């Protein structure tokens, strides 16, 4: 084991992280019905057990306290440690692999898949322990701006138990490239012959001028390198590569292409970048007005490979142009809500589909880039922005980050304002334009003035959007590139156009409400005593208020019924434990259903 690993073995932070993973793991196993466990009751916490057998055949029970919440019927374990009971002995459960092996018959997966899952769990334990140790240092310094917040917000997915597995990263890689450690990175650059490259370019964008601006003095230097190789620079497109991807994968995977000069290695750029919380998106440290760059990494994290599939790169600018036109033509979004859409203005991909299938699968989605607009030029004087996930963060003294703002403006006013500025733009996009965005906490930014939420910014559109062509749209729909047949083996849940209208609505509710708003509801209940029911009542009232403002959209309110009794959400843990032809989704209760305007059951009526 490396020196880094040795320092994690007996740390208090490791125990803290292990307890968190145990909670999220058991919650998801029960909630997704992967194991047939106890029927968790709504309301107060009660004690429950999961049963299995040791490797020697002895009966074993894992005991914990849990309750079922009003928010989508989510299961929540208490902060108390899980206890392992066997042969008359009871002690804190201290081994995640042993737990999974002992209840394996109830899970019913293959040894191969269980082994992979155990590795993801163990990697999450080690890598998040490193992050928690770093957090103690970070918490001594308040983030100066949005980019600093991206490094500060490092908790990872609040539901998925493999929230920081980063399979492919060693512990040294994690330290060198993980956003928690605020590394400053230089990007490797290559030139790809235009016949081997595919583009997605925003309207009115001149790619030469754009790259000259982004690269500065490096642009001329790279052109000179191409000329020195005996090639014409006008026949090549410049492409950045994440330093880990270059050193650990691309330099060898594309060796033959470099030999034929289909790809020319140019060296490292001058600008420094820092990774955002999503790891593969980087902020320009030298000039904050320059684009964020999203680059593929051949690693696995929270259910998905972190490559960038070619068809998504080719959809990037097309979808952003469409969304930009949507906002520009809609006075409500443009003038009243002042919605910020961080458009993806350029996508470039290596055309790996021209390779034989065996070779293509090795480099599928491994070489490409998306340039996304920076948030900074959109902010007006007096505005500050932070990732939505930062709203549920604690400072070093245990005080919530939002506490000063709540004390200043009052909890009810602050919470209602937060819900209004975040809910209304998203449901307007759904109702008026038939479009659902994957608005989880990483894809949303909250903009505040003097601590009061005023508007939101949204990002990540190349595959984080859903619509149904069956629903008319005055702008039509973008001419998108669909996934190739072999893409399903890489990520079977990535597709934009849906046949079923219900799937569009559920996509919004899953990303935005099932995880994002629910976690904030839990946080406000814990730290400020705000009941879940009050949170969802306020959300429902905002939706109803919107519907009263736009009665002409009544048919859309019925088509996209946000008050349906049940919705379908992804089974994120089940996806790691089973392989099959179908998507892993299940129906769960919708907390908005209790406040359906037709029911007349709003509190106080």
From TrEMBL:
Pathway: Siderophore biosynthesis. One of its GO terms (molecular function) is acid-amino acid ligase activity. Residues 412-577 form the Aerobactin siderophore biosynthesis IucA/IucC-like C-terminal domain. It comes from the Bacteria. Residues 145-391 form the Aerobactin siderophore biosynthesis IucA/IucC N-terminal domain. PANTHER family: L-2,3-DIAMINOPROPANOATE--CITRATE LIGASE (PTHR34384), STAPHYLOFERRIN B SYNTHASE (PTHR34384:SF6). This is Siderophore biosynthesis protein. It comes from Paenibacillus sp. BIHB 4019. The lineage of its organism: Bacteria, Bacillati, Bacillota, Bacilli, Bacillales.
């Amino acid at each position: 084991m490396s020196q880094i690993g040795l320092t994690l073995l007996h740390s208090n932070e490791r125990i803290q992280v292990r307890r968190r993973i145990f909670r999220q793991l058991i919650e998801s196993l029960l909630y997704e019905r992967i194991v047939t466990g106890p029927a968790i009751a709504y309301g107060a916490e009660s004690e429950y057990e999961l049963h299995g057998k040791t490797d020697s055949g002895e009966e074993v029970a894992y005991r914990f306290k849990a309750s079922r919440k009003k928010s989508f019927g989510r299961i929540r374990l208490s902060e108390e440690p899980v206890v392992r009971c066997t042969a008359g002995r009871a002690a804190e459960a201290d081994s995640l692999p042993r737990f999974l092996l002992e209840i394996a018959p109830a899970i019913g997966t293959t040894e191969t898949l269980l082994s992979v899952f155990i590795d993801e769990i163990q990697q999450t334990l080690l890598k998040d322990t490193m992050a928690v140790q770093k957090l103690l240092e970070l918490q001594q310094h308040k983030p100066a701006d949005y980019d600093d917040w991206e490094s500060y917000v490092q908790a990872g997915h609040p539901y998925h138990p493999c929230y920081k597995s980063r399979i492919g990263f060693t512990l040294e890689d994690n330290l060198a490239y993980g956003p928690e450690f605020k590394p400053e990175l230089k990007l490797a650059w290559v030139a790809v012959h235009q016949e081997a490259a595919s583009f997605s370019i925003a309207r009115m964008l001149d790619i030469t001028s754009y790259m000259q601006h982004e690269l500065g003095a490096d642009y001329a230097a790279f052109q000179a390198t191409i000329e020195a190789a005996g090639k014409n620079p006008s026949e090549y497109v410049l492409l950045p590569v994440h330093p880990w991807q270059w050193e650990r994968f691309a330099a060898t995977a594309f060796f033959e292409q470099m030999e034929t000069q289909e790809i020319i290695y140019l060296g490292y750029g001058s600008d420094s970048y820092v990774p955002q919380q999503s790891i593969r998106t980087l902020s320009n440290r030298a000039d904050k007005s320059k684009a964020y760059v999203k680059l593929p990494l051949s690693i696995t994290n929270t259910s998905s490979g972190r490559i960038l599939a070619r068809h998504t790169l080719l959809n990037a600018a097309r979808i952003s142009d469409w969304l930009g036109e949507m906002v520009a033509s809609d006075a409500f979004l443009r003038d009243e809500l002042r919605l910020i859409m961080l458009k993806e203005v350029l996508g470039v991909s290596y055309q790996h589909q021209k390779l034989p299938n065996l070779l293509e699968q090795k480099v599928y989605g491994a070489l490409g880039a998306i340039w996304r607009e920076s948030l900074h030029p959109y902010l007006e004087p007096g505005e500050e922005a932070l990732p939505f996930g930062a709203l549920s963060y604690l400072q070093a003294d245990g005080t919530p980050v939002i506490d000063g703002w709540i004390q200043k403006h009052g909890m009810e006013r602050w919470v209602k304002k937060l819900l209004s500025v975040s809910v209304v733009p998203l449901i307007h996009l759904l109702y008026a334009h038939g479009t659902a965005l994957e608005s989880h906490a990483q894809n949303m930014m909250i903009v505040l003035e003097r601590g009061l939420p005023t508007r939101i910014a949204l990002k990540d559109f190349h595959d984080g959007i859903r619509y149904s062509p069956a629903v008319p749209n005055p702008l039509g729909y973008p001419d998108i590139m669909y996934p190739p047949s072999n893409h399903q083996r890489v990520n079977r849940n990535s597709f934009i156009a849906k046949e079923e209208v219900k799937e569009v609505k559920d996509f919004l509710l899953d990303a935005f409400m099932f995880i994002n708003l629910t976690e904030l509801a839990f946080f406000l209940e814990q730290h400020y005593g705000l009941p879940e029911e009050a949170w969802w009542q306020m959300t429902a009232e905002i939706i109803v208020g919107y519907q009263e403002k736009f009665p002409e959209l009544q048919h859309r309110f019925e088509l996209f019924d946000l008050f349906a009794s049940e919705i379908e959400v992804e089974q994120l843990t089940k996806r790691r434990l089973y392989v099959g032809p179908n998507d892993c989704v299940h129906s769960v209760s919708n907390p908005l259903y209790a406040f359906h305007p037709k029911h007349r059951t709003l509190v106080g009526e």
